[in-house]
Amino acid sequence: MGISITELIIVFLVLLLLFGPEQLPTIARQIGKVMAELKKGTDAVRKEFYNSIYAPADELKRDIRADSRSLQALKAEIMAPPRGAHPAVDRRRQQETAGADTQRNLQDAQTAFEQSTPLAPQTDEEIK
Fold first, then answer.
1. Minimal CA–CA distance to 48: which of 124, 118, 117?
2. What is the pLDDT of residues 17-39, one digit of tens each?
3. Any residues with CB less than 8 A from the CB of 55 and at least 6 apart, and which?
4. Which of 22, 72, 85, 115 is deepest in the core (most CB within 10 A)?
């Protein structure tokens, strides 16, 4: 959906007829400057968008993970059998928590995967 060679030649010939060969280099330079400024502006907007969306999301994820870890530690402390408990109580609690451990392992694997994949580029070089 770009411009073909024939369309480019037609545009060049029309510009040549309208402005003449003396003004054509000046017009080309001005168009180049405008395009450069437009690219700078769009890059700045893109960078601002990424920094305003992804940086707070990363912070939020870190806070949620920290809270999740503290809740898991609290649960483990609550679920631990009391000292001097009968071995049958220990076995029953282990069986009850086996399903929860499997679910937690799946969540830990998903969290590790999410941490290994970057959300968004943070520098100008990575944006391009």
1. 124
2. 888 888 888 988 998 999 999 99
3. 122
4. 72
